[in-house]
């Protein structure tokens, strides 16, 4: 099980042969992290968290942020020590062997594709609300909501997933300027929300603080974790980073700290201004977010609660007397969220590409388009999967499923850092995780705690996905692995458009 370890020196040698141009500094990495983190999580899942925890979601943000912080410290050591593509998959391959590396890579597939679907649904909610309130055009719910939310199919979400897929296939990447503008738009929109919502807070709205007990706070933390996911995408840019030993930790931890402060202020603004008490069923229990029961109850109430909104922040601004600013916030989300979808889908194709390079997936998955010079086969497959997820599932369910894969990968990296300290103590570590004997176990325990706080459907789907992954590994990948076959070094293909769409790269 722990055999077939790919030595770190071999991984680094492979990366050197590929030799991507190093252009990203600490500031660009921090901007990348903020751009990847601030997305559907805070724009949309605020309503999801309110339905699970009420005002207690403030504590949920803190719990999820602490777990992410300790995981980020472990990520920072690995990313600075092993500045190569592949993220948690590559780190696990170097420390814990091929089988666990395969399972981590398989879980990352779940993370990126489903997360892109969740962001697509979030984009749909804000754009549909913007169209309705700005132009008075009401689109039938059947075509903008999935079957679990009381509709039939989410066509706008499918559209944006298809658009991003097309952009990735033809090789259109965001330039440094465009990406920076999108990050500024998102941060400005959230800042404006804080400035308008926080001054009108009513402290009575924070009572009762935890209407569903600590179990509700834990469940909300497990969902809100999605709002922090994205900082690991910074590590996929390690090969394009100047002085990665210094800049990777700054980019990871700096972006996480910046986003945490924003999240707490935004959530306080929502709770204090319009209230965030959950809607209860006839039995006194909270209705499940994204369920038909909650959709029916919200319809009966006229969607007069923030927990009913598909565009929680814009809805809040309209409720407190800023309808045009609410529309502008919806416009900001509509403009900025596609960049998050693009980053998630890029991360998906990169993981596939690296696993295909190692022989664990078919070589066709890394086939390059003769004209556009992009991995078009796996990009199209990924795009179809994302579009189907977005069309039929509610955002909260997609976020929870994505979190299950993410938490597994984060726990694996934390274990890998701890094991590598013992197995290779003399290797140069430009950034050392502080108090590793405490930080790594806390990170693992935090990931396990949040995983078991997820809903039963998400945990079951993760187990099913893991079983499928094991079948694929033993039926196909194990016998074709380059490490298993004794192929010492397999350099990555020189593909210009495989560099990530991040600040510092050019079109």
Question: What report would you give on this structure?
Answer:
- The protein is an all-alpha fold and 507 residues long.
- It has a single domain (8-278, 301-498), classed as Amino acid/polyamine transporter I (Up-down Bundle).
- The chain contains 17 helices and no strands.
- The longest helix has 38 residues, at 98-135.
- The protein is globular, with a radius of gyration of 22 Å.
- The two termini are 43 Å apart.
What is this structure's SSE topology?
Blueprint: H1 8-18, H2 26-37, H3 40-53, H4 57-81, H5 87-95, H6 98-135, H7 155-170, H8 176-197, H9 213-224, H10 244-274, H11 292-301, H12 312-319, H13 323-357, H14 376-392, H15 395-423, H16 436-452, H17 456-480
Helix pairs in contact: 2-8, 2-10, 3-6, 3-9, 4-9, 4-10, 4-15, 4-16, 5-6, 5-15, 6-7, 6-13, 6-14, 6-15, 6-17, 7-13, 7-14, 8-10, 8-13, 12-13, 13-14, 15-16, 15-17
What is shown here, in short?
The protein is an all-alpha fold and about 500 residues long. It has one domain (about 10-280, about 300-500): Amino acid/polyamine transporter I. The chain has helices spanning about 10-20, 25-35, 40-55, 55-80, 85-95, 100-135, 155-170, 175-195, 215-225, 245-275, 290-300, 310-320, 325-355, 375-390, 395-425, 435-450, 455-480.
